[in-house]
Write a structure and sequence with these properties.
Layout lengths: L5 H6 L5 E6 L1 H5 L8 E7 L3 H5 L7 E8 L2 E9 H9 L3 H7 L4 E3 L2 H13 L4 H19 L2 H21 L5 H7 L7 H8 L11 H21 L9 H12 L34 H8 E7 L1 H4 L9 E6 L15 E3 L5 E5 H9 L3 H7 L4 E4 L1 H8 L1 H4 L3 H24 L4 H20 L10 H8 L5 H20 L9 H14 L3
Parallel strand pairs: 2-4, 7-9
Antiparallel strand pairs: 1-2, 1-5, 3-4, 6-7, 6-10, 8-9
Helix pairs in contact: 4-12, 6-12, 7-8, 8-10, 8-11, 19-20, 20-21, 20-22
């Protein structure tokens, strides 16, 4: 990895970090000269934030540049991370077991020791879905990066199903698995030169190899000796309680386990339908809308920009008849991919959440079915003058963080400063016109100049104040209604739930 003081990065975080590891291309064994440093890990929220009425922010994300290296750190609270482990999420297990350790604690070591207990043969679904997503991206772009991701995740899944544990390093997988295509080392070497270069391969050969690896993964899953359900629930529960409250005795707060009811010939019992879905199934099989967000959607992408994907899925109505409800959101299965269940998505949109409203208006739609089109047709129902409060309040919160950066480090995180200016501009335009347009258009170059640090911080501050004042004035004569049309949205959700009963 690039030489940078990663330990200092961990020390700067708002909450205690239990572990941080390098993920992404560095973990997978095919970094480029200009690859970002992607770090993932776990932090520990104060117990008080989990006991009150407010829902805490369980995921913290930060992007910045240090010593000329672009860095990305995402951490989950311990409880959320453990729940993801138990949901057959291969992505978080790769982060946990990464050999590229930036920061570690006793809690990290305990999680690593318990990781083998959560592995099941259903983890094949995660790798299968991730591979399909990356293959579609490769077919669309022809870039080498998604092709390497496709091959990597298929080989990781095969390795896991054969009892070899989690191995995410593509060169190692290519050396150990006889099914790996012989040209993998050449692709890795080509990727080292350029992050977003084209894949110089024969399409028919690669397609045949990918289809063959899918078949190998299917066969390996059928023969796998891995269990059907994850284990280690009690041990993980005790770990979460012990780390959060060091004085708690073993088993504190643990729910009483009752004997499982007898199952009938169809594998169901009187608690409701047997669970057949994992979280990645919900994204893979039930997504109604997906789009590209971030710099690419904003018209601010550069050669090294990642591709952030966001989506909406509809959990089948029968899943709500169980005691354990389906998740409100799912991270993955691909990197930089995040999806919301449709009800949660609509709740946030009705609150004028800036990220959600912008997602609804992305110009880069990748998937859209009939329900997704109905959702997009409702975009106007979510727009109201409440956007002034949420957009400007969010911007002011980000501004305080930038001020802190200037005090501590002498400069702000310029990329965040750029996006704050973009957000305030978008807010003002929305309030004036009643339309939400997220592509910056001809403002691209002046915003990128801010990202490059070419505009002095006092000038950036002046622009922020001016844009906030313009948004305040635009509110007075805005054509937007005072509030969203919640009734229309509720009617839509009712129709969606009724359609998905079967």
């Amino acid at each position: 990895m690039p030489e940078a003081d990663l330990g200092a990065v961990v020390a700067e975080q708002a909450h205690p970090v239990l572990f941080a590891t390098a993920s992404g291309a560095h973990l997978y064994g095919f970094p480029s000269r200009d690859s970002d440093v992607d770090m993932r890990g776990v932090h520990l929220l104060p117990a008080a934030q989990l006991l009150g009425l407010r829902e805490p922010e369980e995921t913290c994300s930060r992007m910045w540049e240090r010593d000329g290296v672009e860095m990305d750190l995402v951490t989950h609270d311990l409880r959320k991370f453990v729940r993801l482990m138990l949901r057959r999420n291969g992505y978080v297990l790769e982060q946990l077991l990464s050999p590229l350790v930036v920061h570690s604690t006793e809690a990290h070591a305990a999680l690593v020791s318990l990781a083998p207990q959560v592995l099941t043969h259903h983890h094949a679904h995660h790798y299968r879905g991730f591979a399909r997503t990356q293959w579609r991206l490769f077919e669309r772009t022809g870039e080498l990066k998604p092709l390497l991701y496709t091959l990597r995740v298929l080989l990781t899944g095969i390795h896991l199903m054969r009892g070899g544990g989690i191995e995410a390093h593509l060169p190692t997988l290519a050396a150990e698995l006889p099914e790996a295509p012989a040209y993998v080392p050449d692709l890795v070497a080509a990727k080292s030169e350029r992050e977003h270069g084209p894949a110089e391969v024969d399409p028919d050969t690669v397609r045949a190899d990918v289809e063959r690896l899918h078949a190998v993964l299917d066969a390996a899953q059928e023969r796998s000796s891995l269990p059907d359900t994850p284990g280690g629930h009690d041990a993980l529960h005790d770990l979460v309680v012990r780390v959060r409250t060091p004085a708690a005795p073993p088993g504190a707060g643990r729910r009483v386990r009752v004997a499982a009811p007898a199952k009938d010939a169809h594998g169901t019992d009187d608690t409701g339908p047997a669970r057949q879905h994992d979280d990645t199934d919900l994204v893979g099989k039930h997504t109604v809308y997906s789009c590209v967000m971030g710099s690419r959607a904003f018209g601010l992408a550069t050669e090294s920009s990642d591709t952030d994907r966001r989506g909406v899925f509809v959990a089948p109505t029968p899943l709500y008849w169980r005691f354990e409800k389906p998740p409100t959101h799912v991270e993955g299965p691909a990197e930089e991919q995040f999806s919301w269940e449709i009800e949660r998505f609509c709740e946030l949109a009705l609150r004028a959440n800036p990220n959600i409203l912008e997602c609804l208006h992305s110009p880069l739609v990748e998937h859209l079915d009939e329900t997704g089109q109905e959702l997009l047709d409702l975009r106007g129902a979510f727009l109201s003058r409440q956007a002034h409060d949420t957009f400007v309040r969010y911007a002011r919160g980000q501004y305080k963080k930038l001020e802190a950066d200037v005090r501590v480090h002498g400069a702000p995180r310029w990329k965040h400063a750029m996006h704050l200016l973009r957000l305030l501009t978008t807010c003002g335009d929305l309030l004036r016109t009643g339309r939400l347009v997220i592509d910056v258009g001809d403002r691209r170059e002046e915003l990128l100049a801010v990202k490059r640090g070419e505009v002095a911080w006092p000038e950036v501050e002046s622009r922020m104040r001016r844009l906030a004042e313009e948004a305040d004035r635009a509110l007075e004569g805005s054509p937007l209604p005072d509030g969203p049309d919640a009734r229309r949205v509720e009617d839509f959700l009712r129709r969606v739930r009724l359609r998905s009963v079967q």
